[in-house]
């Protein structure tokens, strides 16, 4: 257990804090004295300036203060004798540390996808939130001004400002100011170098930082990522190669990191051709230096991530030959690994997975065979090479591919994966997308047991201990529809059981995406109505419209409890939802029609159902009115009395008809025909 602090230690700690606070107050007073002193005054002390700067650097104080002191100091004469590069460098270094931390705390940049008012800072330091950091552009203006006033600055100070541009998350979408500033600083350094300034000397690192800044711009500026960033980064790399080949020195040898940054930009665009060309260029450069036993060859070595980038680029490419090119590259890498030609290369499982994804995107019969062959090859390698072990992503790529054409094969692989997981040979982390893929595959098939196979998969996922899975609405709807398509009584019953399961899940977790909608009820209601189970169909119809009233939850009140809320609202409906509601009613109305000639009460039941549309806010169509009209006609034709016990409620029905369709439109003739038919019922 940690020792308890005594009263003496607490007092000492408090005294130390008080002393430090007192010293800080004194330093701030001295800083204000320096900042407010007249230019050329005797009270201005260079020794005091140096002491204050050291205090700010040692105590990690606000860098804005350090730059303000420097700005004041450069106004004095003989500034170049007192302000050194080390002072400016330390101020810039300290600014860079704070700026990087601030940019990291920004959860998301302001792009066209993220509105300005969602830009937030993830920090609990309220003082840091209020403290505004200088931008790289502002720091560069200060550094440039110091250089112009004669302070002998060095390359390392310029580099620190450039490094700041690699962390810019622009406030304006598609405006990579940081990258353009990095190029500007690079150009100034080149100009200084040409004037034989021995302190300013660009290098391969300078170009790499500028390229990295364009990579940042490509990441946070979608438009620039497609236009300027790739070409500007490539131009910088080509310029660096040109300077090296023209004899500017070994410090201009393009490092592998510069190639990797440019490759990364093109890879995210899906430009596999360019990424592969850059990879070959780097490999050629490496061989040239390696064969000459050049000491700089190690700076050009290719490691595994370079080859992974090339494969990734082909996986995002729309080139019809992308899969072939990716597979050819995989073969070449396997040969290089086996021969030891590239010591830093290790072909891993991920490489096989990427090539499988490339083939999977082809969506052809051949692609399924190719993916299976690559998977089998990986499985064979895994017997002797731990770096090429079959993992979950390998199974997912294979299952997704087979699911497009062979659901049985896809499910067989799924259960094989489950078996290996149970044996401890392969980790299994199935997710909702995989289950949905398998279910959708079976639902598109014509196999007799497709519905049962879907049901088995979903129930397995629900019951799985290592998967907190709640089937979404779309998955349930697909399975229920598939059961109802079987046209079998057991299928209808199972569909209704799944509906009840959805209701139970939603009752226990109202935030789940499991609330039944009209597409859930429609196939079940239609199925019961088609086989004459009208009471069951009617009961489900009423049940659906009753559950459409949902609890009200105040958006800003996180303490609201769905289960304890008594208020309710009606969910607004789209035109498609209104159409589906009408279809639900019509399934019941159409189901009553065949019974109208044998059951005298059917016409009344059908009419009651039609008039319920007013209660539930549904919109009957012309077919709705026609079904009920035909039911009354059959009733009249089948029984001796004009109307059996009940008479049609013509006035109510006509009022509903007029409300929905009593206007001039292209179906005016159909409306008048229906109205006349109902009017004739009233004269009997």
TrEMBL record:
Comp. bias intervals (Basic and acidic residues): 12-23
Skewed-composition ranges (Polar residues): 1-11
InterPro entries: PPR/CCM1_RNA-binding (IPR051222), TPR-like_helical_dom_sf (IPR011990)
Repeat as UniProt keyword: yes
Disordered as annotated region, ranges: 1-23
Repeat is among the record's keywords: yes
Keyword line: Repeat
PANTHER family cross-referenced by the UniProt entry: PENTATRICOPEPTIDE REPEAT-CONTAINING PROTEIN, TETRATRICOPEPTIDE REPEAT (TPR)-LIKE SUPERFAMILY PROTEIN-RELATED
Protein name (Swiss-Prot/TrEMBL): Uncharacterized protein
Organism per entry: Fragilariopsis cylindrus CCMP1102
